[in-house]
Amino acid sequence: MATIYEVSELAGVSLATVSRVMNDSSKVSPKTREKVEAAMKELGYRPNLIAQSLASNRSNSVGVLVPELHGPFFGAMLSALEDEIRASGRHIIITAGHSDETKERESIEFLSKRRCDALILYVYGVPDDFLVEFSESSVPVVFLNRLIPKKANQCISLDNELGGYMATKSLLELGHRELAYISGPLWKRDSTKRLMGHKRALGEFGLGLNEQLMFEGTYEESSGRRGMKHLLASGVPFSALICGNDEMAAGAMGAARDRGLTIPGDFSVIGFDNVPFTRYLYPELSSIDCPIEEMGRMAARCVLRDAYGREGLEIKNRFEPTLVRRASISSIQ
Amino acid sequence: MATIYEVSELAGVSLATVSRVMNDSSKVSPKTREKVEAAMKELGYRPNLIAQSLASNRSNSVGVLVPELHGPFFGAMLSALEDEIRASGRHIIITAGHSDETKERESIEFLSKRRCDALILYVYGVPDDFLVEFSESSVPVVFLNRLIPKKANQCISLDNELGGYMATKSLLELGHRELAYISGPLWKRDSTKRLMGHKRALGEFGLGLNEQLMFEGTYEESSGRRGMKHLLASGVPFSALICGNDEMAAGAMGAARDRGLTIPGDFSVIGFDNVPFTRYLYPELSSIDCPIEEMGRMAARCVLRDAYGREGLEIKNRFEPTLVRRASISSIQ
DNA sequence: CTGTTAGCGCTTTCAG
DNA sequence: CTGAAAGCGCTAACAG
Question: Whole-model pTM above 0.85?
Fold first, then answer.
């Protein structure tokens, strides 16, 4: 593999000049440029990005930490994020944190050592304090799905409370008053926010949370099934179910069907996230849509701005979910 | 950020010695090691992996090219792959090729420039010739979902023909004789293999492919819907439908339901891939399971073997799909 | 077991 | 506009 040195020899110029035409920094006369480019071509020269990184103290890489690589949610986000970063000529290094504080810290450590120019963190386990401190003694960091007041500019977040509110309110407006709720794990702040929104909507209708109609799941489909069994076993009647995400809603619907119940005949169901499979379910699942690709893209833009000095990028930090009505909900008779 | 040089000064040893304790290459006396480690700790030293890479001519990174980052399929694969690579202390650089030859080539180029120690390629567009040639003049390469005879040892593939055969045979054995087929795009070899398996099973029962009951889709849900409409419009009766993947099966089921048809009452359906949402569908979708995580893991192991000299790893190159029976198929009356 | 000495391939002042 | 020269932080012979 040819080096810059060989190119400079063949072109009859100095190393520095070759470097200049590569980075088109400062001016190079058209003639010289031509000579150099010809030499590059002849040698099939490819710059060594590692050497470039070392010399320029820039790795042109962005570290990304997400809870999981699988599932319908993160892939979509990563896809948009990768597009944007890649289009700027850099690459992403992906790691999974598995929503576990220890693993998340390890991943952050891992990415730090890789000398990423910036980090995009979608974490659940590590506390705000750590993140604030870390971000102040490190390369630029962007937080996804998290709103840290001191770092609001580096946060891309969704109004989960509003989402929970919208979900519940839509059901209340359809006349439902006996509402069941299957939550995500309550140690995750998005879960608690969604639940808070639920309570707010209930409150507006003079209702409160019925603990017997509340189940804490894990965001996994299986916990939705368990939740449904639990709710049915309680014997407390309900005409609508709100779920913390679509997977659990799918599980709950499956378990209900196993008992011979029909949706929305026996009760209405609404999920959260609006992942693609909501439209494959029967009945199609109503959900609260999160603009997840858009959020991924924005995280990428924050990085472009903070780590690579790009200006004039339109950046939105806070997102609002939207309600998507489908066949799984109907008004009460 | 402290450098190796500062550590060596503080510890009162040479650069080389510090380097040795980091890589625990060759022997270092316990005392020296201790001194060095103390110095490292005191300075909060973190090796600069970029410099390491340049000097050692190893980036400790593995480039991964997949068709897409989103969707239920690739995420699962990447997840297993990342686990394995990460556990060995290296990282992955992910790019998306979008099943497009030009983009795939660009991605390969991109990863090559990044000086990855190895590449894992899941590509559709580029021809075998190119891949063979490329792999001979590059770092180790592993091919996913592709069987290139000359490079069989570097291929991790699935017997798609067998999968197609199994899907169709299971239906034939249930008494179905009028079979419809919604294929993936026929320029993708996995699609054609699956179709070939379908034909083989038909042949065994003295049947042939009925062109009127065959539709070429795109592997996307929407094309499954279109396929179903097309099949119904043809007026040719069928009692079972085989789909090239689960997304299209989901779309076909949705379109059928819109017409008031029931499954498996009006016809049986089977998909391919056995992605998670197959169990969320109504009725639950039978499918041909691909051990996709396992394949991802094996690709990672190939890399560990070929690029990092790891020995004694159990590696399997060729995988067989399995039939998963669920409620979407039933015997014909 | 430890130190010395060259680089790895490129960027970046600083002169000219 | 171009060249010379000094590193970036680390590894890897080669001596000792």
Answer: yes
